[in-house]
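Anyone up for a design puzzle?
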């Protein structure tokens, strides 16, 4: 007598489904709930809105002490014989809010990173989630290290070169808008670039990037570092570009080292 099989015991073709050789570890699999395309868009929209709201809150809080930050940023050049100038009636207001936005962006990095994590977490395994979750505090730490590196090491050399370049021909009278834009761009993007080794470490730990691929594409890394240096520094002089390219290439080398360590810990062959 034929035994009736339950629908769950048949495959999509109607044939009985054989038992798997090994049990599936539910903790090492993505979530069982599968989201549709529009569900992903709705989730992404929700996360972006929350990230923007967090940025708005931290920027509003930064307005309370933006004046102190601005005074600190102009300390290296604001002397009795060298004062920053404003050429427009609204330039001071724009600079004030730009500094507040930079401070708000720094303060909101943990919140924005958390929203990104919550968006991608459902598609990751438990092991992958653990790697990324443990790396979240390091993202803010590395960003702040990059900002400090840019401020205490890169900025003095860059400003000294720019102030004294062709000083017998040109008089360095800088506008506040151009100076603050230069400083904030350098601090922010150098801080972002310091997160590159951590990103490559995580990708290598997950088996998505291999150290061999990083080593073989070093030429692309040099080109990318030069383009990034040209975008970060608004000047075209090679001195300031090399000041930015040097740390970027050093971070790429560090990324290769960390990628090799992560690959070996994962038991993968390079």
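Challenge accepted. My sequence:
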């Amino acid at each position: 007598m034929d035994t009736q099989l339950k629908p769950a015991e048949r495959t999509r073709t109607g044939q009985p489904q054989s038992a798997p050789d090994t049990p599936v570890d539910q903790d090492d699999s993505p979530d069982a709930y599968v989201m549709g395309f529009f569900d992903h868009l709705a989730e992404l929209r929700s996360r972006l809105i929350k990230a923007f709201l967090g940025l708005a809150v931290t920027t509003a809080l930064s307005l309370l002490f933006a004046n102190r930050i601005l005074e600190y940023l102009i300390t290296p050049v604001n002397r009795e014989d060298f004062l920053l100038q404003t050429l427009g009636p609204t330039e001071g207001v724009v600079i004030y809010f730009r500094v507040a936005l930079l401070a708000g962006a720094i303060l909101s990095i943990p919140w924005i990173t958390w929203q990104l994590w919550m968006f991608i977490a459902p598609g990751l395994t438990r092991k992958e989630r653990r790697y990324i979750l443990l790396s979240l505090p390091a993202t803010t730490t590395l960003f702040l290290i990059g900002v400090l590196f840019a401020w205490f090491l890169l900025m003095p050399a860059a400003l000294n070169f720019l102030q004294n370049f062709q000083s017998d021909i040109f008089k360095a009278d800088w506008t506040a808008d151009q100076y603050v834009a230069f400083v904030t761009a350098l601090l922010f993007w150098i801080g972002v670039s310091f997160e590159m080794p951590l990103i490559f470490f995580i990708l290598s730990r997950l088996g998505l990037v291999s150290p061999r691929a990083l080593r073989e594409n070093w030429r692309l890394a040099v080109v990318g570092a030069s383009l990034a240096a040209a975008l970060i520094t608004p000047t075209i002089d090679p001195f300031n570009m090399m000041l930015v390219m040097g740390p970027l290439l050093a971070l790429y080398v560090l990324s290769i080292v960390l990628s090799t360590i992560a690959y070996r810990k994962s038991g993968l062959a390079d």
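A detail worth pointing out: Confidence is low (pLDDT under 50) at residues 1-26.
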